[in-house]
């Protein structure tokens, strides 16, 4: 059970070393140190957090989430269009249920190990762990019900609960969700203001656009403001500008003064209140996320201090707090066994060797591990040193940035030539096209790209060339283009006037040329690193992709839950009209009202399977024409279906998108502020994490706070 007695001479040094290793690893990963610290528990703890175990757990979560694509209703069809979709293959009863059971067994082992490691006292404080067990119990009960009904039940509660397994496994997602939850009170004040704004203007609209004796004059009332639900829906959609100016046109065509009503509504609601909501979310969420990251910093400092305390017990005689110290040899032994990034480990070892003292105080010990808080840097290998004067000149010429600029100009010329040919051939039939010109110029440009790549490798050396992501991108596409060009010549011969050979092999000549042209256009992205501002924008986006996985994870959780709910509510609701043939379909749509689900042929957007539900939710989240979905599903199922879509719009398009904008702004502003500091270090790549984004404004915990928290450790008891 750890140190149930104060540290004394002759204590198990191996135990102390192992405890220090685990505490250091906890600090690196921002994990809590409130777990058992006896020998067996430490072994189990390191085994649980090993790459193999975590890989198995992540694979299990992926499998149980992916089951929604193959279980009934299966997404294994070519199209989701209800007019053309063939009956899908559905797995026999028991197949996906068996896979689910295996996943549940892994989760039961997971929760059992977690519960044992933290102990019962900490378990009752951990709401996430209790929710984990409750979710497993409900899921297993629902699984038993499914087998009892031979998989014929229409509602499966456990499918909605599946995203929880992803949520509970990510500490950053938990922190993000907690931050969102803390931001909700401030959001609700703006939502209330939006609701008041919507309600007042709805009342005004129903008073302005009333039914008249002349049916030709009350089109506004008939289409948009016939009753309270229609009026609310019309103005809610106008708040997102999805039906602007459609909703205004009938009244505006009758009297231009009616435009004032719609302009006022849009200005107050969309320009003021919605943007005010973005500002509030940015300000409040940034503050709460900062607090969350501050707690992560505290965990890191606490883990390092705990490692210091257990290593200081290796001395034969107890020491007071002021006299406690750790030998460099003990720390070196810990570093060699601890799992951490190699660059951090090497940096700490270098700092340790440079330290003149044999014994490290708590402050010195903590300072050594500040390397964990620094930016991860990647230095490029040096260029080769040539002895020949001619080779040195070659290296200077082809390693100069101007040579790269020349390559960009050539790539631009290639793009322009492709555009010219596409414009000239736009109205020609495939049989009338002559691929000689495009084939010849592509051959020339690809040979230049190959020569450019080889000369850069000559100037920079292969290792240095490959150390740049832009060069890897450029070189890979050049090799692919060369292979495609050789394959084209091997199958269809060299370009010549009237080059239109018959179809041979896997792809026609036109398909081969199109594929080459697409890769050439894609290769033009190589110019981004050479344009500083564009490079800054792109690196910001890449950092978001790499470091803000928690936000994508939360969006995935919401997408998954809403998609499953949508399947339960609207599966089979949308039914195709009349004949499914293309000709009749076109003819039928000509008689349908313009702008409706049927006339726009939105048939693939439905909730008949999981994949279709995800795409439908995405289309609604973008809010372009989302009023079409509101109208269609209220007709095909129930008017109450609007609540589902409005809830999805609020969560995805309003809350999550604004959160994403807030973090995008934070990341971009941070990089913009640091841009001047990095201009002299252009040969070094800096990689930042969410925690490092806020590192400059975080407060260091005091020694008193750390020691107080250590003395509250449920399994580690210190003498002082």
From TrEMBL:
<dbReference type="GO" id="GO:0015280">
    <property type="term" value="F:ligand-gated sodium channel activity"/>
</dbReference>
<feature type="transmembrane region" description="Helical">
    <location>
        <begin position="129"/>
        <end position="150"/>
    </location>
</feature>
<feature type="transmembrane region" description="Helical">
    <location>
        <begin position="402"/>
        <end position="424"/>
    </location>
</feature>
<keyword id="KW-0472">Membrane</keyword>
<keyword id="KW-0407">Ion channel</keyword>
<feature type="transmembrane region" description="Helical">
    <location>
        <begin position="260"/>
        <end position="282"/>
    </location>
</feature>
<feature type="transmembrane region" description="Helical">
    <location>
        <begin position="507"/>
        <end position="528"/>
    </location>
</feature>
<keyword id="KW-0406">Ion transport</keyword>
<keyword id="KW-0458">Lysosome</keyword>
<feature type="transmembrane region" description="Helical">
    <location>
        <begin position="52"/>
        <end position="70"/>
    </location>
</feature>
<feature type="transmembrane region" description="Helical">
    <location>
        <begin position="548"/>
        <end position="570"/>
    </location>
</feature>
<keyword id="KW-0967">Endosome</keyword>
<dbReference type="GO" id="GO:0031902">
    <property type="term" value="C:late endosome membrane"/>
</dbReference>
<protein>
    <recommendedName>
        <fullName>Two pore channel protein 2</fullName>
    </recommendedName>
</protein>
<keyword id="KW-0106">Calcium</keyword>
<dbReference type="InterPro" id="IPR005821">
    <property type="entry name" value="Ion_trans_dom"/>
</dbReference>
<feature type="transmembrane region" description="Helical">
    <location>
        <begin position="476"/>
        <end position="495"/>
    </location>
</feature>
<dbReference type="Pfam" id="PF00520">
    <property type="entry name" value="Ion_trans"/>
</dbReference>
<keyword id="KW-0107">Calcium channel</keyword>
<feature type="domain" description="Ion transport">
    <location>
        <begin position="412"/>
        <end position="668"/>
    </location>
</feature>
<keyword id="KW-0813">Transport</keyword>
<dbReference type="InterPro" id="IPR028798">
    <property type="entry name" value="TPC2"/>
</dbReference>
<keyword id="KW-0109">Calcium transport</keyword>
<dbReference type="GO" id="GO:0022832">
    <property type="term" value="F:voltage-gated channel activity"/>
</dbReference>
<comment type="similarity">
    <text>Belongs to the calcium channel alpha-1 subunit (TC 1.A.1.11) family. Two pore calcium channel subfamily.</text>
</comment>
<dbReference type="GO" id="GO:0019722">
    <property type="term" value="P:calcium-mediated signaling"/>
</dbReference>
<keyword id="KW-0812">Transmembrane</keyword>
<dbReference type="GO" id="GO:0005262">
    <property type="term" value="F:calcium channel activity"/>
</dbReference>
<dbReference type="GO" id="GO:0034702">
    <property type="term" value="C:monoatomic ion channel complex"/>
</dbReference>
<feature type="transmembrane region" description="Helical">
    <location>
        <begin position="436"/>
        <end position="455"/>
    </location>
</feature>
<keyword id="KW-0325">Glycoprotein</keyword>
<dbReference type="InterPro" id="IPR027359">
    <property type="entry name" value="Volt_channel_dom_sf"/>
</dbReference>
<dbReference type="GO" id="GO:0005765">
    <property type="term" value="C:lysosomal membrane"/>
</dbReference>
<keyword id="KW-1133">Transmembrane helix</keyword>
<keyword id="KW-0677">Repeat</keyword>
<dbReference type="GO" id="GO:0075509">
    <property type="term" value="P:endocytosis involved in viral entry into host cell"/>
</dbReference>
<feature type="domain" description="Ion transport">
    <location>
        <begin position="75"/>
        <end position="285"/>
    </location>
</feature>
<keyword id="KW-0851">Voltage-gated channel</keyword>
<dbReference type="GO" id="GO:0097682">
    <property type="term" value="F:intracellularly phosphatidylinositol-3,5-bisphosphate-gated monatomic cation channel activity"/>
</dbReference>
<feature type="transmembrane region" description="Helical">
    <location>
        <begin position="643"/>
        <end position="665"/>
    </location>
</feature>
<feature type="transmembrane region" description="Helical">
    <location>
        <begin position="187"/>
        <end position="209"/>
    </location>
</feature>
